[in-house]
Structure formats: C-alpha cells, structure tokens
Design goal:
2 copies of one chain form a homodimer. By secondary structure, the first copy, chain A, is α/β, with parallel strands linked by helices. Chain A is about 45% helix and about 15% strand. Chain A binds a DNA duplex (30 and 30 nucleotides) through helix 1 and helix 3.
Chain lengths: ~325, ~325
DNA sequence: GACAGGGTCGGAAGCGGTTCCAATGCTGCA
DNA sequence: TGCAGCATTGGAACCGCTTCCGACCCTGTC
C-alpha cells in the first residue's frame, strides 16, 4: 500500500485495524484507496510484527478414526467463524507425535493447539507453557490444561446395563491397548464402567473375555474371532468404539454367527458408519466436543467471552445388533 | 540465537539452511550451540524474509462429504512427508467460497492450494495467477490448471450397464443440481454416461426419472420418495454418490420397498459407509486422487521431481443392493 | 616478496507490518 | 494574546530471518 492516499504508514495501519485516533475523513479516504487498489496487508508481516500467528493448530491421530473427523467438524464450526486460520497436524507414528510437539506446536506457527485423543506427558505440557503455546485437550485430560471429555465410565455402564437387561450374562470387551502413545484412556475407562456394572450384578469378567489391541477394524476383527473360538464364547460383545464394533461384526459374519441372534454387539461413538450398519451403540457428542474444545481455546486466548456450554450426556442408541438372550 | 557461538547472524542462517560457504569446523560449532540452546528459528520471520510461506492450503466443501475426507487423507499422506504445513479452509456457504479465494488463497498465507470439488471461474483462476498462488484442482478441471479427475462418464456407464445386465429397464437418476456454486460437474457427467448406455440399449430416460437437488442424504431421501410415488416407479436407481444412495435406501426403507427385491440401488464413490451399508457402488480412487493432487502441487512448486502416477480406473463393487429384475 | 584469487565470514539492508513517540494544528480559556 | 491540552498524524524502530556485499585471511604463483 504505497502511501498513495497521502498518509503515513502508521495511519494506514490504524485504519486497517480499526484503531482509534484517526479522523473520520482520513479513515474514509484511506479505505477508498485500499479497495481501489485491492490492497491486502501481508499476513506474514503481520504475524512477525505482532508476535502472534492468528493460527490455531489441531494435533490429532487424524484420519484413521471417523470420530476424529466428526470432532474436526465441530472445531471448524467455531474456528471458521473466528479470525483464526486452521492448521492441521496428523499423527500416526511416534516420530510424527514428537514432531507435532517440537516443530508444529510452536509460537512462531500457532497461537494455540487443540490436542485430540492424545495423552500428553507432563514434560510436554511444560514445554508448551514455556513456549507460550496455549493448549486444550479434547478426549483426554491433563491436570493443568483445560479439557473437554465425556463420561466414558458412564458410557461403559450404559452399554453393559443394556446388555444385561437383554439377558446376557457372558459379555466380552474389545478395546484399545492400554497406555499406547496415542491412546485413549477412554477405552480403559469404558471397560471400567463395564466392570462396575458386571460386578454389581454379581457377574464375572474373566480375563479371556477382555481383548485389547491396536485400534482399527481389522485388529478388532481378529480379536473377536478369538472370542468366538472360545470353548464358551460370549453371547454379547461391547466394543470400545464403533470402528471396532464393525470389526466384531466382520468376525461374526465370517464365522456365520448371527447378529443379533447368536451374538449381540454394542459399540461406542455413534459415527455415521454405525447408523449405516444398524449398530446399537453409545452415542457421545463428538461434534459438540470439537466445538467445545475450540471455544475453550478461543477463550483461553482471550478472544471470546463465550461460555462453553456443557456437553450433552452420553446415551444409548438402540438399533439392530443387540438381541435378547435367555439362558 | 544470540551469537553465543561467536559468529555472525549470516553464518548461523547458512548453517541452519545447509547453505554452502561455511567451514566444517564453524558449522559444527554452530550446530552444537543450536541444540544446546534448543534454538528453533522463527517460521514467521522466515516466511516474511523468504516471501514464501511453506504452507499449502486445501479449499474444499469439507466436512459435509465423506468423499472429501478420504481425499484429504491422501493429501495428508503426501504433504505430511514434505516440508510444508497444511492449512484447511472449509467452504459451505457462498460467503465462505468467496473468502476462500480472496482472503485465504493469498501468497502471504499459502504458497499453493488444492481445490477440491469446487468449479473455478476464469476470473478466479486469473486472480490466483496474478497473486502468484499456485493451484491444482482435484475432482474438477480448469483449462489452465493442473487437475486430477476420474472418468465420471465411464463410471456412469459402468453403473448403468450393471443395472441393465440385471434386467432393469426403467432406471432413475438421483444427483446434484447442475451448476451450483459448489458443484460437481461430476454428477452431470455420471448422468451423461448413464444416458449413453441407456440410449445405446434403445431405452428411454424420461425427465420424471431424473432428479437433481442439493447434495446430502436427506435431499436424496426426499427425491427418491417422489420417484417411488410415481405411477410407474423405477425398478432401479443410480445415485451420483454413496451419500445420496444412502438417502435412497432411507426412502425405500420408509416406504417398505424391499432392496434389492423391489428396488435396486447403486451408488458412486465407495466410501466406508457404502461398505457398512452393503451398498453396490462404483469405486473411484478417492485417497489416491488426494495423493495425486498433492504431488501435482508439489511438483508445480518445484519441490518434487516425482512423477504423478496415473490413477486406478473406476470400477464396480458389487454388494447387496442390486438384484435381478425380470420384467 | 608482492599480488591474484578462492574460501570464510560479519553484518547491513530488506521483507511488510505495528507501535510508540514526537510534531503539528486547533480549540478553549485565562 | 498566550498557552495548555487534545486530536491527529508521520515515521523511526523493531519483529527475526535471508541474502548480498565487502572484508579478511591464506595459499599459490611469478
């Protein structure tokens, strides 16, 4: 913006930023020249000068999980309406995980990050704080970080009670491996809710009925196949996610086990896939959690006074994969 | 990086960028100090100085279409391994569409953009060129832009032939509205393939069997309901996307029309949902198209000599929604 | 021994904004 | 009429990096 408007650089800057202290006439003249020239200030220069990037990052085990996509939608709902740009960092390997924190989540790139489904170590959180990168966690928690989570334990209870009410007594669990670097404490907590309900009902949960492995449809398929091959196979399986429930369904189909006739299956999340597959599941507010996380980050950054509304509670969505069992 | 290493700023820069002209001893000394101090150069300053952002943008009607998510996966596969950051811009309204081009796709934010499923006007392409923002198009085409597309017409033929071979003679089409600002020439081209095959077979395609409306499951549901309410309803429906096919399935379920007994349905894309719903569909290489688009952009930017491999051709995936019709 | 020329290196300028401070012009009041 | 004080404005300094140019040191050559 050559000072073709006949004013100083300072004045142009003030006009563009709606800063006070510019006479109305001047302001209008500058504006006229600005859109006559189609002038757009350089975001790059602005970032350097301001020391803020006006960019927010999302770090997530991204495309491998439909639940994450749904959360991203929620995040975009909010960020899209703000003045921030949205940057993505996908994590699928330990190297990427490290890179996300050391190279991507830095103040010269982003003002803040939303971390999805990734447990953060204390040292990592400290590093973030030291660098001045604000962070919030979605589907996870850290003592010193704002976070949004759902009641996974309750979700586990809901699912299990539903199975029990349908008459099942021998139910198995298929979930994520504990303590993996990309984990999912959530899987473990869902199992916990399950255990609670089971033991309240005076039922056993033998180790052979607890399967944990890598996330994904195929691994779940394999685990379910083992369950079905047991001398006394379970009559119902609770999967810690819909994707895994689909894997269980695959195994049942392969073995010719009727669902819900011979085997009942219940999932968790209620992603689109679950609806299409007619899967009974525990619904968690995925998109809303993304929105809440984004709002949280904006408010931490001081950009929004907005209150972050409470998330809807988890609840059961009954479809066609749970049937009565009278044993 | 205070010049604690006892060298000038120029030297530090040269070391960090592996530029020549630095004595090996000096280079090593600087490197030592760098990681002793945990020093990281500021991306913001670098961008300003370089005049490049080392950031790539994706502009897409993002979260509303699972096919787009799949393409994004492919894009991330490639960009994640490059030196570029990935920025996202979601388009769902005409305002967002305009903003994407005037505010987001600018040289101070991104070096290049991948435009997905959005038809670009000549003026828009010119503006991009003038600003020096490189662009490639995925699922779309523009005379003067590199692009990756599949053979939609052939896909339409494939689907229709399959239906014809199953004995159907009265088949309908459910697709996207023509010429919408977020369109999808692809829908139209798929219809074209359908028409070709139909007329080669000496069959009619009356206007009442061609339904076009907004993209999405619900609108497709509504359109299919109208088709089913016809005096002589179609015995098969070709939907221009899986999402729309799902909507057709919804309508059938609502009306108690058996699929594939009384109605056959075939979709397009083969997204996860299709598999879960047992939908017969035409598979297009979504993820690969994302990868190809990203490679194309990198090569346009001169960052990659990589050849962009040809995409696999579209082909039929037969599942459970197409049945024989003997009329 | 003087000098040309290559290898290294230091640091000023420049990228394009924001912001702070000083300068200017007016207004109102004593 | 003189001056304090506010509104407005211009522009230097600065953000942290890259790059270009000039300086310096050494070597080899005649």
């Amino acid at each position: 913006m050559a000072e073709r408007a006949g004013v100083g650089v300072g004045t142009v800057s003030r006009v563009l930023n709606d800063s006070p202290g510019v006479a109305r006439a001047t302001r209008e003249r500058v504006r006229a020249v600005v859109d006559e020239l189609g002038y757009r200030p350089s975001a790059a220069a602005r970032r350097l000068s301001l020391g803020r990037t006006m960019t927010l990052g999302v770090v997530a085990p991204f495309f491998t999980r439909p639940s994450v996509v749904e959360r991203l939608r929620g995040i975009d709902d909010v960020i899209g309406d703000s003045h921030y740009d949205l940057m993505l960092f996908n994590v699928e390997t330990p190297e990427q995980r490290a890179a996300a924190l050391t190279r991507f989540a830095r103040p010269d790139r982003v003002d803040g990050v939303i971390v999805i489904s990734l447990p953060l170590a204390d040292a990592e959180v400290r590093a973030l704080g030291r660098d001045g990168v604000r962070a919030v966690v979605v589907d996870g928690a850290h003592r010193s970080l704002p976070h949004v989570t759902i009641d996974d334990v309750e979700g586990g209870r809901l699912a299990t009670r539903h199975l029990l009410e349908a008459g099942h007594r021998r139910v198995a669990f298929v979930g994520d491996r504990e303590g993996n670097p990309f984990g999912f404490g959530s899987s473990q907590r869902r199992l916990q809710g399950m255990s609670e309900v089971l033991s309240e009902a005076g039922l056993e949960l033998p180790g052979e009925l607890i399967c944990r492995g890598p996330h994904g449809r195929a691994p779940a398929h394999a685990m379910a196949a083992e369950l079905l091959a047991l001398a006394t196979p379970p009559t119902a399986i609770f999967a810690a996610s819909d994707v895994q429930a689909l894997g269980v369904l695959d195994a049942a189909a392969e073995d010719g086990v009727a669902v819900p006739g011979a085997l009942s299956v219940i999932g968790f999340d209620d992603v689109d896939l679950a609806g299409a597959a007619g899967l009974t599941t525990v619904r968690q507010p995925l998109r809303e959690s993304g929105r809440a996380g984004a709002r949280l980050l904006l408010s931490v950054l001081g950009d929004e006074l907005a209150t972050v509304a409470a998330l809807p509670a988890v609840h059961l969505v009954c479809r066609r994969t749970v049937g009565r069992h009278d044993g």
